[in-house]
Amino acid sequence: MAAAVLSVRNLSVDLALAGRERPILKDISFDMRPREIVGVVGASGSGKTVLSKAVVNWIEAPLAIRGGEVRFRDRDILAMAPGEMRRLRRDVAYVGANPMGALDPTLPVGRQIVEKIRAVAPEIGGAEAARRVVELLEAVRIPSAKARFHDYPSQFSGGMMQRALIVDAMVSNPTLLVADNVTQPLDVTVAAQVIRLMRELTERFETAVLFVSSSLPVAREAASRILVIDDGRLVEEQPTEALIASPRHPYTRELVSQVPAIWREAPAVPRGSNAERSAVVSLNDVSQTYRVRKRGAFAGASELRAVRRVTFDVFKGDSFAVVGESGCGKSTLMRLLSRLERPAGGEVLCEGQDISKLSGAGLLAFRRKLQLVLQDPFDSLPPRTAIGRMLEIPLRVHGWRDAGRIREKVRAVMNDVGLPDALYEELPTGLSAGQRQRVNVARAMVLDPEILLMDETLSALDQTEQFKLLALFEKLQREHSLTYIFISHDLAMVRKACNRIAVMYLGEVVELADNDRLFFDPGHPYTKALLSAMPTLEERRYRPEDCLLEGEPPSPIDLPTGCSFRSRCPQAFDRCVRENPLLTARGRTDLSSCHLVSSPSAIAAERASRSTGT
Amino acid sequence: MSAIDPAFTALPIPSPAASSRSIARRILGRAARSTEFRIGLALFAILLLAAAVYPELSGIDPTKMDVRARLLPPLFMGDKWSWAHPLGTDQIGRDMLVRSVVGLRYSFLIGVASVAVTLLIGCVLGAVAGYFGGRVDTLAMRVTDAQLSIPMIILAIAVLGVSRPTIPAIILVLGLSNWPVYARVMRSVVMAERGREYVRAAQVSGATHARIILTLLIPLLAPPILLTSILDVARMMIFESTLGFLGLGVQPPTPTFGNIIADGRKYLLNAWWIATMPGVFLCLTLTSINLIGAAFERARNTIYGGV
After folding, report:
1. Do A426 and B14 touch (CB under 8 A)?
2. Which structural domain range is residue B211 located in?
3. Which of A326, A397, A547, B96 could form an S-S bond across to A532 if both were Cys, CB 3.0 to 4.6 Å?
């Protein structure tokens, strides 16, 4: 066994904020060997990020190191002088969760990475450094790396930026890479690519990776050994498979049990009883087009077709899900459904009324019926308004005047979503993400809506919080007979909570199916690709190698001709270039748009020809 | 990413006793506990009281000349001082104390009112421009640019030279000449805030744009702007004296800080107190407002910062 490249011994870190001192990390000890990927898993606030920063000696006030040591190649880096540490940055690299915030928006990406090389390794010349950066950008599969070298951060997509940051970290051939939640902001298919890339890099450059993640399935994808942190304490350390098969510590056991099962068990998804299946929301051939300024041209605009001819019905009592990667038009669809925008074509019907034609009292009545729960728990609450007041505002908008009744209603809703009464006069400042999301739900519920539109409501929460909120949604649905429309990229959550699912790719619905059918018999290759990239704790049903080509979705400004998925589809053939497949029925209720799905009429025709032939 | 995970600064759920009071009252209570707030408030109250009742109570006419008692120094200065004129007299024997106090009235009225006009125009135009964007924004910002290109003095000469330089006219001119700065600041902060998700949530709950601007955005963004605008009150008082030099200010014999200072400047060597006393009053007034404002701002920050 090779000598440990990093060993952490009894590391303790405290929060040293006057009046609120408390320990963040307690007595953490572990070792890492070269080329090993070690996962660190824990809930938010458990101290994972602090640990990852302590390992690279980047603890700043108000945090303070209370004791212990971090030995990197047998030297305690916590006791190092800043100058010495700077030279060591060549060997210890760090990648954070927020790629957009990590690069200077006013400098080309390539130049910033060159700057970093020259800072840690001054002996390398500028031209040589640039050559190396281009080489590495190619290695992380950034297309036409030479040209991209001179691009600005705003011209990179999220996935490309994260890869550029990995280049930034790997460029000095570090011995240790600390990756703090790197896949969190990425789509599943891109995250899978990044994890694969990281694995390759450990082999190519002999780098050890400390892979911090809030999701156990993601850590399982990446790491060979996993550390579980709960409330600042290292509670368990086992090789990945052993940890999942036989977790020892109660916290780990809880964590494993909370990961939604995808294949093993059929979820208890809600089903509206067949007698009253009336459509509450229907989309009829809905399209939305934005005009954007043409890049690199003096004048002129190009059309961005964000949503293309979407048609589906949501029935009363359904939990309907719209899934897809970023840029597929989910958010535009959300804005259309909540009438923040009017569609460029087609119509959105809510109980038979075209919502784009509503105004005045009719619009307010629609607003009462359909409410929106937003994604970002920190951005979606006004920072300086007391929670009770926040919940009062919608009521006042809808004409409630009696202060006593308003207060009563708000308290009732707060109880419903599990917020203590004491928070009525509190600011949202001190709340955790989960509690903030409850406030968000309460704000939507206060108007007694029939339909709740959930825009990525759970994606910012850690697993435990997600679990609790899903239970809350279930309860609310039972008590208030709600219809949910989830907009999400998280298939595991969708599998657990939704009965009908629409998969979107580049503004089109490519597949529409019931939960079981979609997961066990996907009709569209993109659905299969999404399923294959989904991190789980179970045996894979679809192998990623068979399902998805490298790369990212094409830009919605210049859509490819024919089928929009063909650039990434492993099964693409000539017909896909020529014509765009239509949504074709597969069975009674399910639809999919792929040339490989034979339409019922085609099957019938084939049968007919066969019967005449024989 | 912020250096501190929000989870670390999260508070335990506060005790019910603390949470029974509303946010505004907690801020007020916290501000009232600080010494500087009390000093500021006491000073401000004294000045306000003096301005309100002293001229009538003392019965001294601020415009009454007394040639025998001209250029008397303030109390205990030199050898000619008298109890009848605690702050001395000016070149034609008018009592400095009563003139300063009456001047405080006018100057304060002019300063506060013109800042209010400035804030009203600037904030409304800026908020509307930042909120709606697009053509509204372009239009509002071009108007702002146009306003910025007109020098204040030219505007004053044009307006006050044509109409008579009455106090409302002066307030209007001063207010009109300063709003573009506020419009720009307000526009940029509203623009940043407008893209936040809670604005979208309010829209979905059915709130009109006017309601969102008035009940969500203005209460959030106005206080820091109000605090900076306090310093502008002093600037406006000085501007008024600038107008006085051109003969377009408040007309003598009505005393304002501006024209008292303008008068006193000729006697600065042998009667320094004429120009100094209004300055002292100006300084005291602004200090007291600033102390109160700063205490409020600090209380706001601590309460909103979650400490």
Report:
1. yes
2. 20-305
3. A547
